User: Fold this.
Amino acid sequence: MDFLKKLQKPYKRRYDRYGSNRIFVDLYFPRNYVNQMPVVVTCPALGLTIPAINIYKLTAKGVAVCNIHFRGGSIFSKTRGDLSQLTPETMAEDVAAVIDEIYSQHWAHRQKIYLYGMSHGCLAALAGAAQCPDRIAALFLCHPMLTPPEQGKDNIVDARKLSSKYLEHWKAFPLKETMESLPMPVMQFQEGKNMHTTMLREIGVE
Assistant:
């Protein structure tokens, strides 16, 4: 029965490493995928490595999902790096590197690459989009937590390991200016049943 359930999943999963820093990503492809697929690149919350998005709903509509393991983003991250070395700049670099690689893949539709951020991952999505705005079709921000985590109080990640450099850079990040300067649509959600419907409509595979 378990084997049959696996066969019925609407996606195929594989792993890859992108960019000079060898950023680890989880790739989820529609089971009967073709070339030129829309792609949603996901930026998980600090301390997490899961996409925090309904992969079934996206892949069932022919959309590929690429989940980033940030350098130092989690103790579970498969990409090398330590939490004490994490900064908004390193996350932006990771996002840009992954976008560059996806842009060159035959299976990706170059005009349909989207960024999705969850919680603190929204900052990574915004910072990454600012580095390659011409390659992002739209930005989806779910439960955006756009303020620095408090050391010793964050219940998702051991914030005591976050460097003062990270917190200083986070506080100095021009959040409002970045959001206003981005040329693509920026959509914010409080996760619910309408989020995926809105995303699929924006992607054009509703």
